[in-house]
Specification:
Blueprint: E1 3-6, H1 11-21, H2 28-44, H3 46-57, E2 65-66, H4 68-76, H5 80-98, E3 105-108, E4 114-121, E5 124-128, H6 137-150, E6 154-159, H7 169-178, E7 182-185, H8 188-197, E8 207-209, H9 214-223, E9 228-229, E10 237-242, H10 248-259, E11 266-271, H11 274-288, H12 294-304, E12 305-309, H13 313-323, E13 327-331, H14 335-338, E14 347-350, H15 356-361, E15 387-394, H16 397-413, H17 417-424
Parallel strand pairs: 1-12, 5-6, 5-8, 6-7, 8-9, 10-11, 10-13, 11-12, 13-14
Antiparallel strand pairs: 2-7, 3-4, 4-15
Helix pairs in contact: 2-3, 2-8, 2-9, 3-8, 4-7, 5-6, 5-7, 6-7, 8-9, 10-11, 16-17
Length: 428
């Protein structure tokens, strides 16, 4: 089911290349199809969105916007246990992200110079939410709550209709809990296009966030520059760094928790214990047999799963940093002491009782994380993603006079004499 390799300087390197490459290919056919959809929505607005909804979702809609009363009704008729769980998760997510808020500043210098920075929330943000078999109400919370905390003026959500032409009720419930302002039934690339270009019904946004399939990801990539986006998310991934103190049942369960996302998901165990490696392999076979998504798990583990046995913990840490996983679990006797050495990961989970689903749903840190090795330079979604910063400058005549020679020297060195003149003219 899952391959086991011994790190020898070559085998594991080839494996890492394989992992990185699984999401790196550009599908030219998909790109062409998405470009056509984007252009049609840009030109035709609602008519194009409705046409593509009939074509791809198999339903005919009378209107794109979901009435506010329907969103509230979904919340009021939702299962109480689910609602309470979501409310408690919201509380944790909000508490964590509140600590990320930044304040502007003003630096008033004795010379009369005033410098500063203003921090404001974006005017309008678009949230894409899958609504079919991959409906994740938790993602609504993770995207909308930091936007609210950042001070975003309006949050607009697009989500595809079900086969009955109605939105997923759990998604609507999450939207009500998270404070989403408007909801529209528009999925796929056409939903992204509506947010980027605006239609008669859907307002144009400043930024688009949220997960989606390859068509959604491609659409987000193509509209970047017209609007901002959060990131291009690849297949889900987990790397578990474990020693002989780890429980193989827990490790196998956590590997499966990511493998069940889709066949391209990556689940890797890096360990210094050959005994643990063997027992985890046995547990995977045993536990997978009872999983509803067994076929997906088995495919994922066979294609992109691995158990890597390292000689030393230092070697294991280096491998974790090289892979730069979306989720990194550290299940070692001295797990907390390793934190300072683990540089590249979207989110780190330390200890046997900190499984990855804790971060997906409840603990508070965001579950929108960099994938495909981009944790080397990208960060998790945060309040920072929903603000813009503007600097401001105010000089007195005397302060500018003291600086003029330096400014003129630099400007003329660059050949920008009109720049230099804009300073000189004030003292001529």
């Amino acid at each position: 089911m899952i391959r086991t390799i011994v790190a020898d300087g070559t085998t594991e390197v080839n494996l890492l290349k394989e992992m990185r490459g699984r999401a790196g290919e550009i599908d030219a056919k998909v790109t062409r199809a998405v470009m056509e959809i984007l252009e049609q929505v840009r030109l035709e607005g609602d008519a194009a969105v409705l046409r593509y909804t009939r074509q791809f979702d198999g339903v005919s809609l009378d209107a794109l916007e979901v009435p506010r009363a329907a969103v509230r009704a979904a919340y009021e008729h939702s299962d109480e246990k689910f609602v309470q769980a979501m409310l408690r998760a919201k509380e944790n997510i909000a508490a964590f992200h509140q600590r990320q808020k930044q304040q502007g500043f003003i630096d008033m210098q004795p010379s009369g110079v005033l410098l500063g920075q203003r921090v404001r929330g974006l005017h309008r943000v678009g949230l894409y939410v899958p609504g079919g078999t991959a409906a994740y109400p938790s993602s609504v919370l993770m995207n909308a709550i930091p936007a609210k905390i950042a001070g975003v003026g309006e949050i607009v959500m697009v989500t595809p209709p079900g086969r009955d032409g109605k939105p997923n009720p759990d998604i609507l419930t999450a939207a009500w809990i998270a404070g989403v302002d408007r909801v529209f039934l528009a999925g796929g690339a056409q939903g992204v296009a509506a947010l980027a270009y605006a239609t008669e019904s859907v307002p144009r946004v400043d930024k688009i966030v949220g997960p989606g399939n390859i068509y959604v990801a491609t659409a987000k990539k193509l509209v970047y520059g017209t609007v901002d986006i959060d990131m291009i998310a690849g297949p889900s991934e987990i790397l578990i760094l474990a020693d002989d103190t780890a429980d193989p049942r827990f490790i196998a369960a956590d590997l499966m928790s990511q493998a069940e996302h889709d066949a391209l998901a990556s689940a890797v165990l890096v360990t210094t214990s050959a005994a643990l490696a063997m027992r985890v392999g046995e547990e995977l076979a045993r536990q997978t047999a009872s999983m509803p998504r067994r076929e997906i798990i088995e495919q994922s583990l066979a294609d992109y799963g691995a158990i890597i046995i390292c000689k030393t913990l230092d070697q294991a840490v280096s491998m974790a940093n090289a892979l730069a996983p979306e989720h990194l679990e550290v299940v070692c006797a001295d797990g907390m002491q390793l934190l300072g050495r683990l540089d590249n990961a979207g989110s780190i989970f330390v200890g046997s009782y900190s499984p990855e689903p804790l971060g997906d749903y409840y603990a508070g840190p965001n579950h929108v994380l960099p994938t495909s090795g981009t944790a080397r330079f990208f960060s998790p979604l945060s309040v920072d993603d929903f603000v813009k910063k503007t600097s401001f400058i105010s000089y007195t005549q005397q302060a500018l006079c003291r600086a003029r020679e330096d400014i003129v020297t630099i400007a003329e060195r660059e050949g920008l004499y009109a720049h230099a003149n804009a300073v000189k003219v004030r003292f001529s």
